[in-house]
Amino acid sequence: MRVIKITDSAAIRRQIHDYIVANFLFDTGDVKDDASLMGEGVLDSTGVLEMVLFVEERLGVSVSDEEVLPENFDSIDSLVAFVAAKQPTAAPAGNLSSGA
Amino acid sequence: MSEAVPSERSDASFLRGTLAVDVEAETHRIVEHLRESVVKRFSRQGAVVGVSGGIDSSVALALSVRAFGPERVVALILQEKESSPENPALARELCRAYGTMPVAEDITAALEGFGCYRRRDEAIREVIPEYDSTYHCRITLPANLLDSDAVGLFSVTVISPEGQQQTKRLPLRQYLRVVAATNFKQRTRMAMLYNCAEGHNYAVIGTANKNERDQGFFVKYGDGGADVDAIAHLYKTQVYQLAAYLGVPESIRRRTPTTDTYSAPTTEEEFFFRLPFETMDRLWYAEEHGLPVERVAHVMQLTPQQVARAYREFAQRRRSTDYLRSQVVALPPGDSGPR
Questions:
Q1: What is the model's pLDDT at position B273?
Q2: For residue A51, what pLDDT band results from cuts at 50, 70 and 90?
Q3: For A81, B76, B196, B298, which has the most beta carbons within 10 A of its beta carbon?
Q4: Does residue B338 fall inside a structural domain?
Q5: Contact B230, B206 (CB under 8 A)
Q6: Which residues in chain A have their CB less than 8 angstroms from residue B153's CB?
Q7: How far, in Å, CA of B27 to CA of B46, rounded?
Q8: Is a pLDDT exceeding 90 seen at residue B95?
């Protein structure tokens, strides 16, 4: 699995946004960064599991059961904040790299 | 959430603390519904009910016997190697009580043919490598629906022959494969029910209650596959009221409802509902009837946060399980032909 090591929040945001649009909206729509993903029916419980997998496998952030909360997973804004907080070395801008 | 203004009747019923049903009138209504649907609409001459020894199928059988008489109802007991051993005894006790002849079929070989156990076990082994066929397993959700905002994630628990227990969260891919594999059980039962029904020119009576139907606790084309639903409009607590009225044996009425899907015992509360039925039914009734959160919290001695959490969960379940209740979606004729 290719893990994308992202070290700025803009790049994290782009990755999460693009993944949600491609996998849950099938490129037929868009979603605002502060929209409730569960409230608007974009994510159901299986969708949340899929996001957990994405965050763990693609963004390299481990997620405990207790962290699977709406405040961490219910919007792009909250996902970005969650991932950024779990990556304490995050730089303010610009550094996007990838590795195996 | 429903925006309906609560009626005086719904409010009063809720405030009484039970979802009381007029059992005699309701029984009459369901019996008429079964007769009308099975005989007049579908031109079938009787009913087949899959009986598990649980409360729902017992009430469905009792209602079917009232509708068609014991000679025109087949009670099918569909066991497999992981079924609870007490189920067939309870199902037979039920049949004796209503004068129907039970027909028992073992579906283990069919499930082995589908690879039900093997596929499930392979997925579980990816999460817990030491798990093998000598272990028991079950899938559960956290029970704290009212007290945590955490999204309910399924965990797998395995129990070794020595009794050692291990629980881990099921990642997405393994979760989907475990569910897909175990769903063979409900779908095989459905195939057997229809085999029996077609062999008699009877109809299959559904045994799902309102909780299962509306919240999506059933397998599409599995236990959701039936010709006529008997109790799909009744909350679980109302099913118990009917069971008492219809004389369902006490041994069945006193049992804790289980899924009877996994080799280790799993209650329906652990597997899906995440709340005791008495609490869930009242909260769900309140949500469906648009009762204000603050008022419900006061009456039920819960916090407004707990009630709001339950309301959100019900709405989410209803939305996310719409797929299960939907029939095949066909495209209506368009303007493109014939030319």
A1: 59
A2: very high
A3: B76
A4: no
A5: yes
A6: 45, 48-49, 52, 65, 68
A7: 18
A8: yes
Residue B235 has pLDDT above 90, yes or no: yes
Contacts of B139 (CB under 8 A, 6+ apart): B154, B155, B156, B157, B170, B178, B179, B262, B266, B271
**CB neighbours (10 Å) of residue B173?**
14
User: Is B335 contained in some domain?
Assistant: no
pLDDT above 70 covers what percent of chain A? 79
pLDDT surpasses 90 at B321 = no
Query: B80: distance to nearest CA of chain A, Å?
Result: 28
Interface size between A and B, measured as CB pairs under 8 A: 44
Alpha helices, H only, chain B: 8-15, 23-35, 55-68, 86-98, 108-114, 116-127, 172-200, 210-215, 236-246, 250-253, 268, 277-288, 293-300, 304-320, 322-325
In a domain, B129, yes or no: yes
Report the alpha-carbon distance of residue B299 to residue B40 in Å, rounded. Answer: 45
Q: Is the ipTM of this complex over 0.85?
A: no
B155-159 and B203-206 strand pairing: unpaired
- pLDDT over threshold 80, residue B274: no
State how far residue A13 is from chain B, nearest Cα, in angstroms: 22
Interface check for B180 against chain A (CB to CB < 8 A): the answer is no
Q: What is the CATH number of the domain that holds B164?
A: 3.40.50.620
Q: Tokens for B287?
A: 């949500």
Give alpha helix (H) positions in B143-276.
172-200, 210-215, 236-246, 250-253, 268
Lowest mean pLDDT among A81-95, B64-78, B104-118, B208-222: A81-95
Q: Which domains does chain A carry?
A: 3-99 (1.10.1200.10)
Q: Provide mean pLDDT across the span B16-29.
A: 87
Of A41, A45, A50, the CB nearest to B152: A45
Q: How many domains does chain B have?
A: 1
Average pLDDT over residues A7-13: 80
Please check whether residue B268 lies inside any domain of the structure: yes
User: Which of A38, A52, A68 has the CB atom closest to B316's CB atom?
Assistant: A38
Asked if the model's pLDDT at residue B87 lies above 70, the reply is yes
Check if the beta carbon of residue B272 is closer than 8 Å to that of residue B141. Answer: yes
B252 contacts B55 by C-beta, under 8 angstroms: yes
State the residue range of the domain holding B83: 8-323
